[in-house]
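As the next step, I needed to go through one protein, both as residues and as discrete backbone shape codes, included below for the reader:
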Amino acid sequence: MSLVEKARAVQELFSELEEEAKTFHQEGGLGCLSGCGFCCSNPKVPASPLEFLPLAFDLESKGIADEIAKQLAMEEEPGSCVVYRKLSDDGKKGFCGNYSQRGLICRLFAASARRNQKTGRKELITCKPLKEEKAEAYRVVSEKINDTMEIPMASQWYTRLSDIDDHLNQLYPINQAILMALELVLTYRFYTQGEEGTAQ
């Protein structure tokens, strides 16, 4: 499978998840807080180069992949996601600058669950601000996902991502993962000279 084919496979996976997440949000009425960047501002968010291949191809098609790769390579300390746009000094308010090409971790947050190892119960993967500001909705949804409400299980989606390329699905701080994806795409384009088209 070529790099372009892997990126397309990742996009197809994301499209499937999008449908499941949409159904969950409609039924549960619970999702990320509007304008919140609490998670996006965290430089330690774990991500893989594989989940950011679509983003890397998108940035390459816009002619800015090399510039962003150089910017990331110069970071002395891991910073918050390079496509995150801050709207507050502390970085806790903002928005994604390339929402359609966001990674798996971004898509799963507040739209998936993990299973508690001790109790076996499903736990919504979300943040402190959402739990505090929508406490009652969070409580209700937490009960429903352990009853009849369907919710994407994060582990299953990571397994499916690994099935595309286990090696490229290793986790790193988010900007390092994006840099690795950009370097892969730039190298790929250098050798193929765009013969296969973009991953879009």
Notes: The chain has a mean pLDDT of 92. The beta strands are 46-47, 84-86, 94-96, 113-115, 122-124, 172-173. Residues 113 and 180 are 28 Å apart (CA to CA).
